[in-house]
Amino acid sequence: MNLQDLRTATSAFRKSTAMPALFIGHGSPMNALEDNAFTRMLRQQGEEIRKRQVPNAILVVSAHWLTRGSFVTLNEHPETIHDFGGFPAELFAMQYPAPGAPAYAQQAMALVPDLHGSDEWGLDHGTWTVLHHLFPEANVPVFQLSLDFYKTPAQHFALAAQLRELRQRGVLLVGSGNVVHNLRQSMPKLIAGDAQPYAWATEFDEWVEQRIERREFSQLLDVQQAGASGALAVPTPDHYWPLLYTLALAGPNEPIRHLFEEVSYGGISMRTLAVG
């Protein structure tokens, strides 16, 4: 199927009230098993979304699928990927058997010229550990969008903006990462059971919140603008980039609501927000 055929085929998909877009600070995979303030927030948010409008599909941009080039999954039955180690057997036994969404993946490819299809990925833990709480019945089709490690932040933001039309097609778009994600600095506190955040982590998390409140998204493309806290909070960009995807989907007058705010174990921000 060529690009014009894709555009013709997908233009027939029914339009709907714009679905929200979420950014979720997913934190530890153990959140899939736990009942805490964060997971209860996810369950409540899922209930609110379903009451408003059940999504036709869910597109997740996860920090854990890094590629050269940009890809969407075309799998009809994506596997549950346990891309971690050292956790309880109960976590490895968990499955999230949601169907894939190849038709919507093809629509995304029609909207973004340099987006390609792939069947070499499934649902990684940045996706299924949060969807397990948002949509516990796993009955909404899910597909993923990779992060091209060779794109600049501005290029990621521009790519995401091209996907806005999917929100009108009943697609819930979810960025899954962490605003602050420094595992090297957090591990000693985690081992010691010390949940107190570092000052630099709180500083950067609040800097991001302020830029969002002022809709100064362009400043968020360069974390160095936050000063020394930026380099500590974002030692690698993979967990930060999904935030840019969610913000790029926001209309000029759409509300952005902060659903959860916490910096835990020194340097992991669980900030979660909703556009629309």
Question: What features would you highlight for this structure?
Answer:
276 residues, alpha/beta, 6-stranded mixed β-sheet, two-stranded parallel ribbon, 11 helices, 37% helix, 18% strand, disordered N terminus
Describe the structure.
The protein has 276 residues and is an alpha/beta fold. Helices cover 37% and strands 18% of the residues. The protein contains 11 helices and 10 strands. It has helices at residues 3-10, 37-52, 89-93, 102-111, 125-134, 153-161, 164-168, 183-192, 199-213, 228-233, 241-248; strands at residues 21-25, 57-67, 70-73, 115-118, 142-148, 171-177, 256-260, 263-264, 268-269, 272-275. A 6-stranded mixed β-sheet has the order 5-2-6-1-10-7, sandwiched between helices. Strands 3-4 form a two-stranded parallel sheet. Strand 8 and strand 9 form a beta hairpin. Helix 2 crosses helix 5 (125-134) and helix 6 (153-161) packs parallel to helix 11 (241-248). The radius of gyration is 18 Å and the shape is globular.
